[in-house]
Specification:
This protein is of the alpha/beta class. The chain has one domain: 3-Layer(aba) Sandwich (Rossmann fold). It contains eleven helices and eight strands. The protein has an eight-stranded mixed β-sheet with strand order 1-2-4-3-5-6-7-8, sandwiched between helices. Helix 1 packs across helix 11 and helix 2 packs across helix 4.
Amino acid sequence: MSETAAFVDVDWGGRSVRIEHQWIAPERTQSPLIVFLHEGLGSLAMWKDFPQRLCEAAGFRGLVYSRPGYGRSTPRAAEEAWGLDFMHQQAHVVLPALLTALHIDAAVQKPWLFGHSDGASIALLYAARFPQAIAGAVVVAPHILVEDLSVSSIAVARAAYLETDLRQRLGKYHDDPDSAFWGWNDIWLHPSFREWSIAPEIAAIRCPLLAVQGLDDEYGTLEQIRGIARRVPQAQLLELSDCGHSPHRDQADRLITSASAFMKQQTGDKP
């Protein structure tokens, strides 16, 4: 079963930020841990029941959290702009600080990471930087470079936020929807961000890796996960038909079956 959401303070660049988090099946103390990393407009609550379903299928325990700027975590100040390295900051600084604050010794417990979209890119960056502190990763609709398709779809999202009820709908999941939306949208549409790429860095990944993408992903082409496969030889790919940018919503059952089997196989527990 899942615990109710709680909060923990961590240091990020010399300031204290509050992070919303929730444990799934904490009673499985001897089972592997999956840490869930949400998308660019996501939060703990926006995962809905997917983390619980995946943990149940795999027999693992889970940790879900909202990054600073999202959900019920400390919002981004209105005048604060995310830098070009915002995903690196989350992978290299915030996530390790969160694990430490929650008394998770990643070098010993070696968590699995399950990331979606921006969260998938953060998972890749963490895996590349901390090979000794991860069991494996499942990355869903990851970004390893910026494509024209990504930028055009994010521009469409901007128009929707300004002209439709998108802000109101996001307000159900974020204390400050402007913090979540503009932090993400402004940096992705910044001209300098067009050169962003983590392709060279991910070649350092040594852990088991499953990369997943929908064939109808409106935010990226299959070059995202095929580019991973060229640089990370042990990576396995899963390309899902009838599926857009959110496989955990569009093809949840297929994703749960494939991801849980992959993780169990890699941990020596046959599916």
